[in-house]
Design a protein that fits this description.
Layout lengths: L1 E2 L20 E3 L7 H20 L2 H11 L3 H4 L1 H12 L1 H11 L1 H18 L6 H28 L6 H44 L1 H5 L15 H5 L5 E3 L9 H4 E3 L42 E2 L4 E3 L37 H4 L11 H4 L11 E4 L3 E4 H10 L8 H17 L1 H12 L4 H26 L6 H18 L6 H20 L1 H9 L4 H30 L3 H16 L4 H23 L1
Parallel strand pairs: 1-4
Antiparallel strand pairs: 2-4, 3-6, 5-6, 7-8
Helix pairs in contact: 1-7, 1-8, 2-8, 2-16, 4-7, 4-21, 5-6, 5-7, 5-14, 6-7, 6-8, 7-8, 8-17, 15-21, 15-22, 16-17, 16-22, 17-19, 18-19, 18-22, 21-22
């Protein structure tokens, strides 16, 4: 077993554990069922992102059918994308409460139902509610669990696993573009929407693959051993996976003489109450077992001496949450072994801060699990904790983060414009609908290749990831701004290839760059705020492009606007290295001044 020292537990006057510091934490196995999770995430990306990025083909149909302005019609897809991003903190709260599987299935049902309901729409306003708000929220519930579920199963191979999963986005764009065009041509936009709604419903099957990691199941212990408080050792059955316990599970030992409370931050929670100082676990959470406090070897563990009688142990409450989002690295898509503070002390994770959240999952009595959000709405402790952390605005005082958030805001303004308007732009150049769908497919193929290559480069220790990120965004913006000069299919296809390849850095490297800039402990907070920035920007980007067409009768200004904003987002990030040096020197001067004044 791998040990990390735990901080002292806090206990109330009745002796029960209010703050759990001791965790039998499953270590990601980097394989096994995890590859089925990767497959499920890959398929979900194919369906959800394929539908979203091919929605520009529906946009043309809505324009001709409802005969509304291009800016007003663009609100449908912009609201859908904006709600998908902005609902990220809500989705993460649900994941922490109910787990990735349940949230993904619920999102699939909501998204599919709203897509099917849209076939009855008689105006754009109805589509704004059904597609924009309803489908967007459903996709938001799918978007985050599809990544989180993969990261819970992988550590050293996380970069490879998440890379495979998110490649479904580009592959889905390649598949759905011609599929959507053929469906519209054969069944009209209403029939095509109905079929796509049925396809989205298949995400229920793939979401069911998101099985949570389970804690090790201790062997049965005789009742007499529990009654005897002098008994100090209880054996666990060796794991059957071909590796020893040290390779599979990470245990945090009991601190001081506090009563033992145990929780699994990936699987199921374990209860503590006023009368008991122990917890239980078993198959399906029903068969009670004694708790384990300390480890003496990979297969033998030492129980706490004040272990209660077996009959007094309370089984876990069935409604307790997964606690998945308590893990600080849960949103990190690169290999965890590439984080310097992690690799510096592989077997003493607490010294690098990695176990602060692993080992400090709050578990209160069931009566105390319900807290108030916004002063009136009651929610679970898991939901409250995660939402509060992701929406902690204290990070807005960090100059480096604000610069990165501003960059993300500009990128998101222009990000969706090519996906939505490239088909309409091709139509103005007298290209047929089949060629328009091929252009979107080219973006998908190039995006897949870009994510693979850029993700591979970003994992190399000699590569400056921030520099790669900045250059890709700058080149993406320049190519988009010059795209109005394209006059035919092949020139537009060349632009689509350049856009798809370079924009892959924006999607694949964001969480990696955040950890490089801010550290792992701030990732959850930073990612939640970035989703808010991205959501707001996605709301306004496509409608601005549509309004520019209404004014100028050309899509050129829309692509020019998107290109300028994306290029700006890459250029301003070149300021970060000198800004960091300035802040570091300023902190050193302040420290020296303080030291001199104290002496």
């Amino acid at each position: 077993m791998v040990h990390a020292p735990a901080r002292k537990n806090k206990n109330n006057e009745n002796g029960n554990c209010d703050l759990v510091e001791d965790v039998l934490q499953p270590v990601p196995p980097d394989g096994g069922w995890g590859w089925m999770v990767v497959f499920g995430s890959f398929m979900i990306h194919i369906i959800t992102d394929g539908m979203t990025y091919s929605f520009g083909l529906f946009y043309n149909e809505f324009l001709s059918y409802f005969n509304e302005g291009k800016g007003y019609t663009a609100w449908i897809v912009s609201i859908m994308v904006g709600v998908t991003y902005a609902s990220g903190p809500i989705s993460s709260s649900f994941v922490n409460r109910y787990g990735c599987r349940a949230v993904t299935i619920a999102g699939s049902i909501i998204a599919a139902a709203c897509i099917v309901a849209s076939i009855f729409a008689q105006n754009v306003l109805t589509l704004i509610f059904t597609i924009g708000i309803g489908t967007g929220f459903g996709l938001g519930l799918i978007y985050l669990p599809a990544i989180v579920s993969v990261t819970t199963w992988f550590e050293a191979k996380r970069s490879l696993a998440t890379g495979i999963a998110v490649c479904g986005s580009g592959f889905g764009t390649f598949v759905f573009a011609p599929l959507t065009e053929n469906l519209i041509g054969s069944f009209g936009w209403r029939g095509a929407m109905l079929i796509i709604g049925g396809i989205v419903l298949n995400c229920i099957i793939f979401g069911a693959l998101f099985r949570p990691l389970e804690p090790p199941k201790p062997s049965k212990v005789h009742k007499a051993d529990i009654i005897d408080n002098n008994t100090t050792t209880a054996e666990l059955k060796p794991l059957k996976s071909g590796t020893n316990g040290a390779d599979q599970y990470l245990q945090l030992p009991q601190g001081g003489n506090a009563a033992l409370c145990r929780s699994n931050s990936v699987g199921h929670g374990f209860n503590s109450n006023n009368n008991n100082q122990g917890v239980s676990n078993g198959v399906n959470g029903k068969t009670p077992y004694p708790t384990i406090a300390q480890s003496t070897s990979s297969t033998d563990m030492v129980r706490h001496r004040s272990q209660p009688h077996l009959d007094q142990i309370t089984p876990p409450h069935e409604n307790w949450g997964s606690g998945t989002m308590y893990r600080p690295d849960i949103l990190y898509q690169g290999s965890i072994l590439n984080i310097p503070e992690y690799t510096a002390s592989r077997h003493d994770l607490s010294s690098s801060g990695m176990m602060k959240r692993y080992g400090s999952v709050r578990r209160q009595s069931h009566a105390e699990e319900i807290v108030k959000c916004c002063g009136c709405i009651t929610c679970s402790k898991e939901t409250h904790d995660t939402f509060v952390e992701m929406m902690n605005f204290a990070l807005l005082k960090d100059a480096v983060f604000m610069l990165f958030a501003l960059s993300n805001f500009f990128t998101s303004i222009g990000f969706n414009v090519p996906y939505i308007y490239i088909a309409a732009q091709a139509e103005t150049l007298q290209l047929n609908s089949a060629q328009s769908s091929y252009l979107i497919a080219v973006i998908g193929v190039a995006n897949t290749i870009g994510r693979i290559i850029l993700g591979y480069l970003a994992d190399k220790p000699w590569v400056n990831r921030l520099w790669v990120y900045n250059v890709c965004l700058t080149l993406c913006g320049i190519s988009t701004a010059l795209s109005p000069l394209c006059t035919g299919f092949y020139s537009l296809a060349a632009y689509c290839a350049a856009f798809g390849f370079t924009i892959g850095a924006y999607v694949g490297l964001t969480s990696v760059i955040l950890v490089d800039l801010l550290g792992l402990e701030k990732l959850t907070n930073a990612f939640g705020l970035l989703l808010l920035f991205q959501g707001v920007a996605s709301f306004i980007g496509p409608p601005i492009g549509g309004w520019l067409y209404d004014v100028t009768d050309s899509y050129g200004p829309a692509f020019l606007m998107a290109g300028i904003t994306i290029a700006i987002s890459g250029i301003i990030l070149f300021i970060i290295p000198p800004l960091q040096r300035h802040l570091e020197s300023k902190a050193k001067r302040k420290l020296q001044t303080t030291t001199i004044s104290m002496s």
